[in-house]
Amino acid sequence: MISPRVFTGGDLATNGYMLEGRDGWICFDAPEGMARELMRTEIRPVALVLTHGHFDHMWDSVLIQEDYHCPIYVHAADAAMVLDTSYVRMFGVIPPIRAPSHVENLDVPEQGTATFVCAGEEFQIFHIPGHSPGSVAFYHAGWGLLISGDTLFCGGVGRWDLPGGSRTALLQGLRKHLVPLPPETRVYAGHGPRTTIGHERETNPYLDII
After folding, report:
1. What is the pLDDT of residues 197-210, one digit of tens each?
2. Which of 16, 67, 69, 133 could join 77 in a cystine, given CB atoms 3.0 to 4.6 angstroms apart?
């Protein structure tokens, strides 16, 4: 069974994940300290994939881009946050976080799904806005795992009270895209412990089907 390496960093205890594909390592999110962890483990990523653009998930993205010259993928709706981090002042983050020089946009229909091939592996992307306009989750059917970012947590969901947030869009996206996944699917969230789709169906009040 393929499982990601997990790194948790920064004041918000943000999870970053490292998955080894057929053609190299993929990093999902870049919390503070992730670049140092990559050097410590001698993992050389071929891509950095962001589940969304919030600062705690892209903190080390510029360091990873500079160290490994790898592309950074993010949904177009969140690209501006990644490329211009001046907004972090409103959250009390001083000095501003360095931004990467460029990003690649993930091609996925609005609130829809698409195939994303990276490091020789095929993922299904789900666009689930609500926590941020460009929040996405990545499902690998063969590995039976979901990188959910800040859409779905163990026992909860992402907050929707930040700029561009929407409770309705978030809950609709979760019920449309994630609830139907196989119950044994392992869920690796942006914060907190691992869970499964089956456990969340049974216990997560936000996934109660109306």
Report:
1. 999 999 999 988 54
2. 133
